[in-house]
Amino acid sequence: MPIRWTNYKVSGFYDELIRSTSRTRDWARPLCRFFSSLKDQELIDRKTAAELAIRSMGITFTVYSEEEGGSIDRTWPFDIIPRVIKKTEWDRIERGLKQRVQALNLFIDDLYHNQEIIKEGILPAELISDSENFREQCVGVTPPGGIWAHICGSDLVRDKDGTVYVLEDNLRVPSGVSYMLENRAVMKRIFPELFEHYSIEPVDDYPTQLHECLASMSPRKQPFPEIVVLTPGIYNSAYFEHSYLAQQMGAELVEGTDLLVDDDDCVYMRTVQGLARVDVIYRRIDDLFLDPEAFQSDSMLGVPGLMRAWTKGNVALVNAPGAGVADDKVIYAFVPKAIKYYLNEEPLIPNVPTYLCVDKKQRDYVLANLDKLVVKAANESGGYGMLVGPQASQAERRRFARLIRKNPRNYIAQPLLTLSTTPTLVDSHAEPRHLDLRPFILSGKKTYVTTGGLTRVALKKGSTVVNSSQGGGSKDTWIIDTEAS
Amino acid sequence: MLSRVAQRIYWMARYLERAENTARMVNVNAHLLLDLPKKLPLGWAPLTEIIGNTELFAEIYPEANERNVVRFLIADTRNPGSLLNSLASARENARTIRDIIPREGWEVINAVYLDTGAALPAGLAQKRRFGFLSSVMGDIEQLNGLFASTMLHDVGYSFLRMGCNLERADMTSRIVDVRSESLFLEGSEDLIPFEHIQWMSVLQSLSAYQSYVQKVQGPVRRRAAVRFLLQDPDFPRAFLHCSEQVKSCLQSLPNNEGPVRFVNRISRIRRARPDEMEAKQLHDYIDRLQLNLARLDSLIAKTYFAYQ
Question: Which chain A positions have a beta carbon within 8 Å of B304's beta carbon?
Answer without folding.
Answer: 272
